[in-house]
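Exercise 7.
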Amino acid sequence: MAEYVVIRLGRNHDQTVEWIVADDNGTRHGALSTGTLAEAAAAIKGLPVILLLPATETLTTTVNLPIRGGARLNAALPYALEEQVAVDVESMHFAAGDKRDSGLRPVAAVARAELDRWLEQLEEAGIQAWKVVPENYGLARIPGTMSVLVDDDCIYFNDGEDTEFVMQGATPSDALVAAGQLSDRAEDDAPPEQAGHLVVYCSAEDEARLSHDWIALRHELHSVDINLLPDGALPRLAVTVASGQGVNLLQGRYGPKADYGSWLRPWSKAAILLLGLAIVGYAAKGVDYYRLTQEEAALRAQFTEEYSLVRPGDTRNVADPVAAVNSIKRS
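Solution. The predicted structure, written as C-alpha cells, is:
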C-alpha cells in the first residue's frame, strides 16, 4: 500500500492550498489541512506528492488516434485537438492517458505558462511533484451512472464513460443538459423508470441552495443519490487520484529526467574495483615491458661484443643477429 500527499491548488496562484494523505486503495489518512505551500512541504515527510490543478484552468477530453503512445502520440495531440482549443495550440501542453475500454484515450491540456508558474511555485516551496493531474479526474467514473460534484460555483460532471467536464456558474441540471442527458430524454419522452442514475457529491450548504434542482432532477431521472461532503471536495478527489485515476501532465518536456547518477550509484564500488584491477594490470604489463626491453638491450650488447671477436673488422651495429649468424655460417 502506497501513500501520497495530495495537494489541491486554489484557482488564484496567491490563495492557500489544501492537502491530505491518501493511499492507492482509495482510503484517506488523517485530517484535511489548509495553509501555504511551504506549510504543505513541511507536512510531506518524504511521501510522493500528487498535485491537483484547478479544473477551470485545464481541458479534459478524449481522442481516438491509432498511435500506441510515446513521442509520436504527444506530437499528434495538438493537431487532433486544434478545433477544441480556443488559443494557439503551440502555447498549450498536452498529455494522454491509457486507452479506455471504449478505445478512446483521455487527454488533458493546460497552458504552458500556467503550468510553468505552478511548478515554479512548487520548486520555491521545496516540493517535487510525482504527478500533476486536473482535479476533475478526482470525480470517479462509475459505469452506468452519472456523477456530479458541486464545489462552490463549479459543477464537475462525468457520465461514467467518456464524457467529463467542468462548468462554472451552472447547476447540475445545466451540466446534464450540456452532456445531452436530459434533452435526449425529453425528445424521446422516456419515462422516469427508464432514465439514468445520478450520484451527487456536495456540501450541506450546496444541497440546500440547489434544493429545487434536486426536485427537478428526481422527476427526470430514475434516482438521485446525494452524498454530503463535510470536509469539502478534496478528500473525495484525493482518494480517486491516489488510486491511479487521471492523466498525469508530467509528460514530454515536463516528464522526469533520466537520473543516470542514481542508476550507476549502486555499481560505484564495483566500478572502482574494476578500475583498480585495470590500472594494476596495465602497470604490471608496463613493468614487464620495461624488464624485457632491458634484457633485450643487454643481450644485444653481449651479441655485438661476441660478433666483434669473430669479425674484428666489422664495426657496424648488428640489427639482425639471426641474419648475422647465418652469414658467419655460410662463410
